[in-house]
């Protein structure tokens, strides 16, 4: 169900054998597959508890992105292992938004060069790879060595963080923008804007449907931000967790 009447008064967290748990009054939260909802870090538990506590008269599940990501990590409904998750993420390079360019109209082609080229250049330098771009419908020819480099890099993340990375990639339709966001090279607002560059260009020319565009934009920002936060809070580095809590 997308919504349900709120059935609890208080939300709290507690530490159990498997990690941190969420308590709704005296009931422990469970996943859709009835597993105990247990997360690996206290910071993530606090963030999830905040989602549940912020619900009003009804629980709007579609607004609870961190809870959804935790459920996916715990239940693993597609039954994929770490290698499969990594390969799925890297496969997005073949259809990466920022690698597909237009030749017409010239104004859009120039906008893509000005806005996307710097991010591609950053990724090439950051990971010491060749990526490039193409106006062909087939897209750019990504070298096998580039894919393997990203496979190796993503292997440094744990399974929970990888679920978050893939989630961000599917929102932005771009591995490059997602890694720029997770590496704190670009902001959520910038990453979302770059992922919607052609749409934003068309809106500037022709206008937009007043409420629909704004809703889509806010929703995409919320999802991208939640996914990025999830990755950071699931990181194995306690230093990262501590820094995020301080910030």
Detail the topology: elements first, then pairings.
Layout: E1 3-5, E2 11-16, E3 19-24, E4 27-28, E5 38-39, H1 42-53, E6 58-60, H2 65-75, H3 82-91, H4 106-127, H5 144-154, H6 159-172, H7 175-182, H8 188-195, H9 197-206, H10 210-233, H11 238-246
Antiparallel strand pairs: 1-6, 2-3, 3-4, 3-5
Helix pairs in contact: 2-6, 3-5, 3-6, 4-7, 6-7, 6-10, 7-8
List keywords for this structure.
globular, ATP12-like fold, 11 helices, alpha+beta, single chain, chaperone, 247 residues, four-stranded antiparallel beta sheet, transit peptide, ATP12-like
Question: Please, could you describe this protein's structure?
Answer:
Residues 237-244 have low confidence and may be disordered. The protein has 247 residues and is of the alpha+beta class. Strands 2, 3, 4 and 5 form a four-stranded antiparallel β-sheet that branches. A two-stranded antiparallel sheet has the order 1-6. It folds into two domains: 11-75, ATP12-like (2-Layer Sandwich), CATH 3.30.2180; 82-235, ATP12-like fold (Orthogonal Bundle). Strand 3 (19-24) and strand 4 (27-28) form a beta hairpin. The radius of gyration is 20 Å and the shape is globular. It is built from eleven helices and six strands. Helices cover 56% and strands 9% of the residues.
